[in-house]
């Protein structure tokens, strides 16, 4: 292999590689031709292609120079040996003395002991690992930067050829089956429920049909023009008036990259070496992604993300493949995306059958909207946007946080079986709709629903809920990119009250901060946002928005009853102050000639343990209290509700937690204050029974949970359930769940 190779050599090789695509040869034959071509063209003794058999295993699929008998026999795990290391880190490994390298694995069947120098480069396409391309030679020398670069360019073309199906058929390792095989993704639950549908990619894959430049000069013109268009579009974005400081900062970073000479120069060099403009963008993007995974610094990682995003935009400009690819959305779309904002998700609306994200978190805005839309959602499905193609069959198991992409028929059949059982159960629940949630020993539990969108309201009738126990008002603030106006809010709240047809609605005032950051409000750089400046704390410190919202609520009520509750109240004084705001606004509205509510209830959410020990005066003053179990639990156990590692560590039926809830129940009972529970746990049937058994009489939950909760409550004897819980606690059980489950099993279906 000469140390300096001219660009035209490289271009010639790439064209010869492309010509292989034009032949009638199939998978193995093509791979053999390619290793021969590369070895011959760059004058090296060995050239081998290792491809993924499965996501963890690489297989030698073709070689020029090593023993042919080893082909399809030699395998290694991801990370194993030098080849495995290249695949894992996504970066080249170059050594003059391979056998003395740490982690070297000797594979006698290949005869590679003769070769000292080793250069391996990843075959990858925009972060998707496909295999490793290796050259070896007897002479102990490190390959030059130019040689590494040349091999990377070749690997890029191989990756693009793979995407075009060039190695389909026998011999192609994982490549031949790319985007065809069933793949299981183990993520995490974003929202419970199961669905079957077809993939709809939020950002469809860009298909590069020609990775090799026919005429480098034309390609250079194309990339310059595309970068020009990109720069103008970023400048346009930056000149928008509605930008806040932080959005500006992000776009400034975009502009810096878009105008970076280094980026354009590297792509031009790739083109000079024979790549098409599109393949050049992808080559640089792959390099960025590989670097991204190596960077420990969060700020730098963010910037590399920006560059990744910019590369996607550039590719779309070059290929003309915008979001609207002309493809038709399937009837039962399951949206697959790296991440998505709440407004975009709302635009898709209820037509979605499911949502699968690579990133996201249980408390993200997208999760909040998915919950409101009642669509099953799986988060942390890593790399699914690389694997999935529009129209692929997909099963979403939101309960387990699992996704089956292109499932085997047997898997699909059993999944459908489970869904059919759930549907049957739903039918059974529907028949209970107009019946009360009365237990066998005659205790009636009021079941309310949680809501946050206008779209939720039809469920009020369908689910049989007795009212809205929690209306999360922040969604209206989150889905806009500006602060909603009072009149807009008043109109919306009024429609909510009308849709409730006289049933009570508890409006929770804006609960922002922590995970819920409004796009148009300055984010607070807090080390612990969940325990930071959020919810009522923001409302009291900067009362402008709170007052506006209260006015909107009073106007919406227009002489009808109104229930307002404040989130995250931690001490009596906060409630006194918040309530005073309500009274002041009512007085003000009245003096302006507006009708005042015919009845007013002002309540507090109990989400921090401190409030359970507030003075009696608090319980006497509050018209009602609603336990926000999601937050309360995270503070009770000091376990972040969004941290997958600790989120499920502590059981809601933990004896200490139940005993704590009893303190709240007793204090409310003493003061005669209405009490409900509106965290997610209220909608879990077993938890609901436990809460009812210890004395809660009002639960608010997702509409879909009302049926299952009611069905179970109607089968249990609360006194018996209570006795079971008390016995388990007396016996020192950490959680009462096993004992309660045993009892519930005895009451049967
Ligand atoms: C809660 O914390 O339990 C609650 C209902 O509020 P959110 O989930 O909106 O924080
Ligand atoms: Mg909360």
Question: Could you tell me which ligands this complex binds, including any ions or cofactors?
Answer: phosphoenolpyruvate, magnesium ion
**Tally of strands:** 23
Our Rg estimate from Cα atoms comes to: 31 Å
Instruction: Note the overall shape.
Output: elongated
Helix share, percent: 40-55%
Structural class of the helix and strand makeup?
Answer: alpha/beta
Mean pLDDT, to the nearest integer, reads 88
Spatial separation of the terminal alpha carbons: 74 Å
Helix count, DSSP H or I runs of 4 or more residues: 28
Are there runs of 5+ residues with pLDDT below 50, and where? 1-5
Strand content: 15-25%
Largest sheet: 9 strands, mixed
Task: Please describe what this structure looks like.
It is elongated and about 90 Å long. β10 (333-337), α11 (342-348) and β11 (354-357) form a beta-alpha-beta unit. The protein has 28 helices and 23 strands. The chain has 749 residues and is of the alpha/beta class. Strands 15, 16, 17, 18, 19, 20, 21, 22 and 23 form a nine-stranded mixed beta sheet that branches. It has an eight-stranded mixed beta sheet with strand order 7-14-13-9-10-11-12-8. α6 packs antiparallel against α7, α6 (216-239) packs antiparallel against α8 (261-272) and α27 packs antiparallel against α28. Residues 567, 607, 628, 630-631 line the site of magnesium ion. Phosphoenolpyruvate binds at residues 470, 472, 511, 607, 628-631, 678-679.
């Amino acid at each position: 292999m000469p140390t300096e190779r001219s660009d035209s050599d490289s271009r010639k090789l790439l064209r010869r590689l492309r010509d292989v695509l034009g032949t009638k040869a199939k998978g193995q034959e093509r791979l053999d031709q390619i290793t021969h071509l590369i070895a011959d063209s760059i004058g090296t003794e060995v050239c081998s292609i290792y491809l993924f058999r499965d996501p963890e295993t690489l297989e030698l699929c073709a070689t020029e120079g090593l023993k042919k008998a080893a082909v399809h026999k030699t395998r290694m795990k991801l990370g194993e040996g030098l080849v495995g290391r290249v695949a894992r880190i996504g970066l080249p490994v170059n050594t003059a003395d391979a056998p003395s390298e740490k982690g070297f694995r000797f594979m006698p069947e290949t005869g590679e002991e003769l070769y000292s120098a080793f250069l391996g480069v990843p075959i990858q396409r925009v972060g998707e690992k496909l295999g490793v391309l290796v050259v070896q030679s007897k002479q102990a020398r490190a390959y030059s930067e130019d040689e590494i670069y040349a091999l990377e360019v070749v690997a890029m073309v191989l990756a693009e050829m793979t995407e075009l199906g060039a190695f389909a058929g026998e011999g192609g390792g994982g490549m031949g089956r790319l985007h065809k095989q069933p793949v299981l993704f183990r993520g995490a639950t974003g929202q419970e429920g199961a669905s079957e549908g077809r993939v709809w990619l939020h950002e469809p894959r860009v298909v590069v049909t020609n990775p090799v430049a026919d005429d480098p000069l034309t390609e250079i013109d194309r990339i310059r023009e595309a970068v020009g268009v990109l720069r103008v579009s970023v400048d346009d974005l930056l000149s928008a008036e509605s930008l806040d400081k932080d959005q500006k900062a992000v776009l400034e970073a975009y502009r810096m990259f878009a105008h970076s000479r280094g980026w354009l120069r590297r792509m031009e060099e790739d083109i000079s070496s024979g790549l098409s403009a599109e393949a050049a963008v992808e080559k640089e993007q792959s390099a960025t992604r590989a670097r991204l995974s190596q960077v420990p610094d969060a700020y730098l990682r963010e910037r590399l993300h920006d560059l990744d995003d910019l590369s996607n935009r550039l590719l779309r400009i070059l290929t003309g493949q915008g979001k609207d690819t002309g493809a038709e959305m399937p009837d039962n779309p399951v949206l697959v995306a790296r991440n998505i904002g709440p407004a975009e998700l709302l635009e898709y609306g209820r037509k979605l059958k499911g949502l699968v994200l690579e990133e996201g978190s249980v408390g993200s805005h997208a999760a909040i909207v998915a919950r409101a839309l009642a669509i099953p959602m799986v988060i942390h499905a890593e790399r699914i946007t690389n694997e999935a193609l529009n129209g692929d069959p997909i099963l979403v198991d939101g309960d387990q946080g699992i996704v089956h992409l292109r499932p085997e028929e047997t898997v699909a059949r059993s999944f459908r079986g489970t869904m059919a059982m759930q549907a049957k159960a739903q039918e059974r629940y529907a028949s209970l709709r107009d019946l009360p949630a009365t237990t066998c020993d005659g205790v009636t539990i009021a079941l309310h629903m949680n809501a946050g969108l206008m779209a939720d309201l039809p469920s009020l009738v369908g689910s049989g809920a007795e009212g809205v126990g929690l209306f999360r008002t922040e969604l209206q603030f989150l889905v806009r990119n500006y602060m909603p106006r009072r009149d807009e809010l008043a109109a919306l709240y009024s429609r909510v009250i009308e849709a409730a047809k006289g049933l009570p609605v508890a409006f929770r005032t804006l609960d922002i901060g922590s995970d819920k950051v409004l796009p148009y409000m300055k984010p607070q750089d807090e080390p612990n946002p969940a325990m930071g400046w959020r919810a009522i704390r923001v409302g009291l410190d900067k009362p402008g928005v709170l007052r506006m919202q209260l006015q909107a609520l009073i106007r919406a009520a227009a002489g009808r009853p109104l229930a307002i509750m404040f989130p995250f109240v931690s001490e009596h004084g906060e409630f006194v102050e918040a309530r005073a705001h309500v009274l002041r606004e009512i007085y003000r509205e009245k003096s302006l000639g507006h009708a005042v509510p015919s009845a007013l209830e002002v309540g507090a959410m109990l989400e921090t343990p401190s409030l359970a020990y507030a003075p009696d005066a608090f319980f006497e003053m509050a018209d009602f209290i609603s336990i926000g179990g999601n937050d309360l639990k995270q503070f009770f156990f000091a376990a972040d509700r969004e941290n997958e590692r600790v989120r499920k560590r502590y059981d809601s039926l933990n004896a200490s937690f139940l005993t704590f809830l009893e303190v709240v129940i007793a204090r409310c009972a003493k003061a005669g204050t209405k009490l409900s529970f509106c965290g997610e746990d209220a909608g879990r049937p077993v938890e609901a029974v436990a809460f009812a058994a210890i004395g809660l009489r009002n639960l608010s939950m997702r509409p879909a949970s009302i049926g299952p909760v009611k069905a179970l409550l109607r089968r249990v004897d609360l006194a018996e359930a209570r006795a079971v819980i008390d016995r388990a606690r007396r016996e020192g059980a950490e959680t009462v769940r096993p004992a309660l489950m045993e009892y519930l099993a005895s009451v049967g279906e």
